[in-house]
Structures are given as structure tokens and as C-alpha cells.
Amino acid sequence: MKKVILSAFGFILFAAVSANAQTQTTQGQTQAAPATQTPATAAQETKTSVKVEELPAAVKTALTADSGLKEWTPVAATLVKDAAGKEYYSIEMKKGEEKGAIKLDKDGNQVK
């Protein structure tokens, strides 16, 4: 009886590990797909690094006026010009150990 219970436990453990390995492989494949699309997107966009201090006044105001962003600190900024001619700032933000990014146009409006 003891051998049957241990065998059943081993089988369940093996099945769980096997299912987890398949899930991780699927996630890896999903993440790999957007990476292949990046070169096409990069060819259509122009990115220029900008110092946080050199951001337009409207963008700085938007970062400090929004109650959700007050606790976040801008770390780096990039001026992005897309294929349609739209310009916006991609700003990397940090709050403690958390990191995030926000896209704002020159008037301080959020870009989606």
C-alpha cells in the first residue's frame, strides 16, 4: 500500500512539473514573436535620447501635477517620431524598486 501511494504521488509530481514546463515554453514562444516584429517597427520610428531636465515645460508639469505620477521619478526620456509623423516623449519612471514608462506628447497629454 505504501508503494502505491508513493508511486501515485510521484506520478502527480511528474505531471505537475511536466505541465509547468510546457507552460513556460509557450510563454517563451509568445514573447519571442513580438521580438521578430521589432525591427519593422524600429525602421518606422526615430528615437532620440533627451535629458529629463530638457523636457518641455508642459511635460514636466504633467508629471508633477498628476496625483498618480507624483510619487514616481523620471529617470530617462526619449523623443519618438513615428512613421505617421507623430512626436511624443517616452519617459521611464521609477518608484522605489518599481519601474514603468509613460508616453506624453509635447503638450503633456498622454499618448496611447
Strand order of the largest sheet: 1-2-3-4
- SS strand fraction: 25-35%
Rg on CA atoms, Å: 23 Å
Order of helices and strands: HEHEEE
Helix content: 40-55%
Whole-Å distance between the termini?
A: 62 Å
Oligomer: single chain
Describe the protein's architecture and organization.
The protein has 112 residues and is of the alpha+beta class. It has 2 helices and 4 strands; from the N terminus they run αβαβββ. It has helices at residues 2-44, 57-65, and strands at residues 46-50, 73-81, 87-95, 98-104. The radius of gyration is 23 Å and the shape is elongated. The N and C termini lie far apart (62 Å).
Characteristic terms for this protein:
2 helices; four-stranded antiparallel β-sheet; elongated; alpha+beta; 27% strand; 112 residues; 46% helix
Give me a quick take on this structure.
The chain has helices at 2-44, 57-65, and strands at residues 46-50, 73-81, 87-95, 98-104. It is an alpha+beta fold and 112 residues long.
Which helices and strands, and how do they pair?
Blueprint: H1 2-44, E1 46-50, H2 57-65, E2 73-81, E3 87-95, E4 98-104
Antiparallel strand pairs: 1-2, 2-3, 3-4
